Amino acid sequence: MSTVKTYQKVNPDKDVSFGISKMEAIYTKRKGKVDTPHRHNYFTVLIVDKASGFHKIDFNTYTLSGGQIYFVAPGQVHQVIETEKSIGYSMVFSNQFLIENSIPLSFIASLNLFHNYGQSPPLQPNKEQFGIIQSFADEIFKRHHREAIMKNLSIGAFLKLLLIECNASCAMNPIASDVDSSGDNLIRKFKQAVDNTYKQEHSTSHYARELHITPDHLNRTIKAKIGKTAKDYIQTRIITEAKRLLYFTDLSNKEIGFELGFNEPANFSAFFKKHTQVSPSNFKKNEIKE
């Protein structure tokens, strides 16, 4: 099995860091063929006005329909499976685009939109909210496909408005009233720490020590900001990577267990089955059959 296909640049033929296309144009260009599961090293937003089919993100399957917005973070494996031509927009942008257009990376991190691991269900705003978001996408599309002074700054401004409106329609507000703005910094540091050492360190207490806070403080802050405990987040990160390794590599269960910090293969298998209700071997068989 080959390694998962990764798109490194928004447009490999041009030195650009932003792109927006109509979903119907992508469908026509691909002649309705389904792309293989892949990932990007940049952010992806799908604004779906009309669709039928499925969207798989990190092995979680969501039903495509109208009035949905999907957010795919860099590194997430996804695949759009359309049963008919979709209507909407596919928008991609890199960290470089954000920096060049005065959008702090901390702004993206503070939103309750891009979830690197675990469940990434579509946002389903009400009709009025979707109309506002769609109007921002229309403006971005028009500006992207014409030459104008300060074109990218204009696109960046509308992108920020679009993301703010999306964030406002989330059921859970990431800026919880009982957690001050310092909580945003803590979340970023925690996520970065987990990314750096999740293969070696699986305990909440380790990350609490690294961040110089108590495990209780860490759990309360994480729970308030992203709706799950620190332990849940760490375990989800491990499970997501395990699924990617099982599907996209030829490593054995034993090798994957050691890669993810489990001293005994049986411990990895038990951990995986506890969190997915299926053994690593059966997960691999089931996904390949699909």
Chart the SSEs and their pairings.
Blueprint (H helix, E strand, L loop, with lengths): L4 E3 L10 E5 H7 L8 E3 L2 E8 L2 E5 L2 E5 L3 E5 L4 E6 L4 E7 L1 H6 L4 H6 L16 H18 L6 H18 L13 H16 L6 H7 L4 H12 L3 H19 L4 H7 L5 H12 L3 H10 L1
Parallel strand pairs: 1-3
Antiparallel strand pairs: 2-9, 3-8, 4-7, 4-9, 5-6, 5-8
What's the arrangement of strands in the largest beta sheet?
A: 1-3-8-5-6
The main β sheet shows up as: 5 strands, mixed
Quaternary structure state of the chains depicted = single chain
* Termini Cα gap: 15 Å
Global structural class:
alpha+beta
Total beta-strand segments: 9
> Strand fraction band?
15-25%
Low-confidence runs of at least 5 consecutive residues: 172-180
Helix content: 40-55%
Radius of gyration: 20 Å
Shape: globular
* Mean pLDDT over all positions: 87
Q: List the total number of helices.
A: 12
SSE arrangement, N to C: EEHEEEEEEEHHHHHHHHHHH
